[in-house]
Amino acid sequence: MPREVREKQMLDAAVQSFGRLGYRAASMDEIAELAGVSKPLVYLYLNSKEDLFTACIRREAAALVAAVRAAVDPGLPAERQLWEGATAFFRHTIDHPDAWAVLHRQARTHGEPFAAEVAVMRDELVAFVTMLIGAAAREAEGAGELTDRDVAGLAQALVGAAESLAGWANDTPGVSAREAAVTLMNFAWAGLSNLMAGERWAVPPAADVVQ
Questions:
Q1: Dihedral sign, Cα of residue 183, residue 184, residue 187, residue 190
Q2: Terminus of the chain with fewer CB atoms < 10 Å: N or C?
């Protein structure tokens, strides 16, 4: 069997095991058994449990980013691009729950270097969303007051909301990718639309702010 095919089997088994059992509880014996190979072969191909987990993170992060990018047609209006990207994000995370568990829960809670690998993925998504929001701002007549820093902050907020929603959708039976994407757009795009129209939230006077 070609090396890439055998390695894919091992990574598939590892993602399932890490996603369902957690990094600590998953064993190389179980991963080898799921992959239909010997444990020494897993070590031969992927060196250690840490290297295997890192390879899983990198593969699944790349697949998620690729799915989002592939869904977005740059010829569409910015709002439609954001919708298509959001729908693709939730479709991928819902269709690959073990992979999302690895990225969203396991990698972030077991320290470096695993958290750093996920941060790379997040930075890619934030950069992509920053581009989409920037394009929307350029299309809108009232968005001239939005600075690059405003756009960057909005992109961070949007990606953070999408990540939280994906965690909720995967934990809540019956939630579809479309429903999650609609929730995100209702939460985010309504506010973005106001910003694009030149409307801003006014900070209350200090006396009215609850300390």
A1: negative
A2: C
**Which residue, 6, 7, 14, is CA-closest to 34?**
14
Phi, psi of 89 (to 5 degrees): -60, -50
Angle between helices 28-35 and 49-71 (to 10 degrees): 60
The neighbour count for residue 125, using CB atoms within 10 Å, is: 21
What tokens does 35 get? 């992959």
Cβ atoms of 87 and 181 closer than 8 Å: yes
Average of per-residue pLDDT values in the chain:
88
Which residues neighbour 92 within 8 Å (Cβ) at sequence distance 6 or greater?
Answer: 63, 64, 67, 68
Q: Supply the pLDDT for residue 211.
A: 47
Q: What are phi and psi of 160, to 5 degrees?
A: -60, -45
If pLDDT is split at 50, 70 and 90, which confidence band does 2 have? confident
- pTM here is 0.86
pLDDT digits (tens, 9 = 90+) for 11-37: 999 999 999 999 999 999 999 999 999
Please report the domains of the chain, with CATH numbers, ordered by start residue.
58-198 (1.10.357.10)
Q: Give the number of other CB atoms < 10 A from CB of residue 211.
A: 3
Quote the CA–CA distance of 209 and 211 in Å, as a whole number: 6
